[in-house]
Amino acid sequence: MKYRITIKAHWVNSWFLKLLSKPVALVGHEEYPLVWSHPTVIEMEQDASAWIGVGVRYFRRGKLLGVSMTELPAHSTPELSSGVITFRNGFWNHEPFKLV
Known about the structure:
Mean pLDDT: 88
């Protein structure tokens, strides 16, 4: 199944993150580059559960920060059946990106 993954930053710290970091999706152990507030299509098996998370790298290098992994069930729940997945961080810059 194809999922459209979007990363959005909290309005308080979005200017800082968009200026200094690059977002990345992590599916299992594979990384996919993301674009702020624009969906990126990633294909995943529908019959197998998968761990997914998003985070950022400052200045395009270093450790992936702000990742909170979420397990997608093997068979999509109604909220995931549309194939659209959005992650957002919290008020503070250090809060991880969570599925919303």
